[in-house]
Amino acid sequence: MTARLSFPTIIGAATLAATPVAAQQIGAPGKLLLTNGISTVEGAAGGGLTPWATIAGNATRDGIGGQASVTVAELPDYDFRSYAVAAGLFDRVELSYARQVFDTNKVGGALGLGNDFAFDQDVWGAKVRLAGDMVYGSRWMPAIAVGVQHKKSLDATVVRAIGAAQRSGTDFYASATKLFLDWSLLANVTVRATKANQLGLLGHGGALRDDHGVQVEASAAYQLSRRLVIGAEYRSKPSNLAIAREDDWWDAFVAYAIDRRLTATIAYTDLGSIATFNKQRGLVVQLQGSF
């Protein structure tokens, strides 16, 4: 599969920035291991499917941190790639970007798009932590953050042809996240206002609905050791297009901190029906560098 834009230079530069020297220059890492989360498929820090009220990077309120990731999903009929970078400013503000590539493989030919036709999308995000702390402070008071994600399809003609009302749109969300250290348990709930079709890869809105609807997302993770976490996520989805239903998503994941700057994640995910092709289940792998 070939994306329209190559990202090795971006990812490579971000990975170099994750070296100890760069970290000392910008902001010494200070967060507990793995509490910066991994990269969502839309670029924000959190779980793989849903953002958390954590800020990207290893730096605390005294520094600037960041992370870069590559995520690959292999499904029965499709392939998905996400290339993401995010910056965390003083453990308060996060700015993120992701390029998503959704390869239709042979399905593209069956749908009249041509074999290996790829839907491409840019996602620009911002997040602000408003209150609380994910780890410290009150035992029951979570970190609370609000965020926005602006999504723009690079295939306007195609997404409109399949029934999307717009090629671009904006999601708004609020997340509450808490790590209960006594139990080694993390819990997250995110509420999202969106009208994106399949994350926005198939545009926004459609014949069935063309306004923002409220969706609920949740994550739970258990820390087996300082370096190893297991967990699961759920994400409800809107179903706006007349041509095909859109199902809710879920996954089960294992994340391992190779060291403070490098995290590997593998997940089993069920994305349901995508563009009339059912049982889209498969493995997701992510490698993330952070500083």
Automatic annotation (TrEMBL):
**Signal peptide limits:** 1-23
Q: Which Pfam families match?
A: DUF3034 (PF11231)
Keywords, A to Z, come to: Signal
Q: What is the official name of this protein in its record?
A: DUF3034 family protein
Give the organism the record lists. Sphingomonas rubra
